[in-house]
Amino acid sequence: MSVLKSLLVPALCAALLGGCGGSSSRVEDYVPTRLVAFGDELSLINANGSKYSVNALQSDGTTLDCVIYPVWPQIVASGYGMIFPECNPAAAATTVAVMKATAGAKVADVVAAVAAYEATTVFTPQTLITVMAGQNDILAAYTAYDAGTLTRAAAKTQVAAAGKTLGALVNRVANQGSGARVLYATPPNVGYSPYASTEITRTGDADRGVLLRELTLAFTGGLRLEVTNDGRYAALITADELIVSLSDPTKMTANALTNITDASCTVAMPGCTTATLVSGAGAVGTTYLWADAQRPSVLFQNRVGVAALNRARNNPF
């Protein structure tokens, strides 16, 4: 656990991650009794404990250690003494954290997943929801633009609408305080990813990276404008802005990063482990910003998780 603890650095909420406003009006600490994680693969723990990032291994060099290098909802859950059944190596009897994220999910899939969950369970203020989605919507719109089936303007309009849909979902789940409390994170800005660089090389068009950044901003703009600006019920974590900050070459040393442009994994997700990294990524895979061409690595998950936990503790839920 020493590696994990060293990664759990204090987060500067006000600087990058939406601030920590509202704490002055807190009457008592918010303590949820259940956490439910919705979203795409960036929030997912698979049934075998694997994640769409770098997976740690136990001392035998082959068995996954799902506790090390947690995904961001896992960090939030742990902060409240909750455990996901998908990562319960100590066989704790009470887990109270529910995984509803799915690989490849778009916003429409998240909306459907929430509806399916609500069909059997009522959201209450003691339910804490985490949600991150949008990256797959952004990549789909970019692919359609590349194929010539969407114009640049239409692609941006499409992802902005998806962002707005996710924002409406946040509002509905919170239900003006009568529903759950929601931690919602923007998707990472894929315009800074290895995928963006590959697309620039493939097409010979330096504007492709700019387009991916614009699509990310269109999505996050739609999301943020739609969510009711009331920190009592929902709290924002700006993960897209975190990627921009971590991609600054002048901050690499401060962030303990050695590479902000290349993927660290040599195999496809979710099979990447500390035994399948490029030679420069270090033995534990924490020095590269990106796990694969499109998905950030361990540091990103940690920063988002710590910021989200801070928001839940400091917002007047």
3D structure, described in words:
The protein has a five-stranded parallel beta sheet, with helices on both faces. Strands 6-7 form a two-stranded parallel ribbon. 50% of the residues are buried. The chain has one domain: SGNH hydrolase (Rossmann fold, 3-Layer(aba) Sandwich), CATH 3.40.50.1110. The chain is built from ten helices and seven strands. The chain is of the alpha/beta class. Helix 3 (72-79) packs parallel to helix 10 (298-314) and helix 6 packs parallel to helix 8 (207-226).
Quick rundown:
With 317 residues, this protein is an alpha/beta fold.
Approximate strand percentage = 5-15%
* CATH C-level class: Alpha Beta
Give the strand order, joined by hyphens, for the main sheet. 2-1-3-4-5
What's the N-to-C terminus distance?
30 Å
**What coarse outline follows from CA principal-axis ratios?**
globular
Number of strands: 7
CATH architecture: 3-Layer(aba) Sandwich
CATH topology, anyone? Rossmann fold
- Specify the biggest β-sheet: 5 strands, parallel
Percent range for helical residues? Answer: 25-40%
Low-confidence stretches: 1-25
Order of helices and strands: HHEHEHEHHEHHEHEEH
Report the mean per-residue pLDDT as an integer.
Answer: 92
Query: DSSP helix count?
Result: 10
Helices and strands, with pairings:
Elements lengths: L1 H6 L5 H4 L17 E6 L32 H8 L17 E3 L7 H12 L8 E6 L2 H13 L4 H23 L6 E5 L8 H10 L3 H20 L7 E4 L1 H8 L12 E5 L24 E3 L7 H17 L3
Parallel strand pairs: 1-2, 1-3, 3-4, 4-5, 6-7
Q: What are the main properties of this structure?
A:
317 residues; alpha/beta; globular; disordered N terminus; single chain; Rossmann fold; five-stranded parallel β-sheet
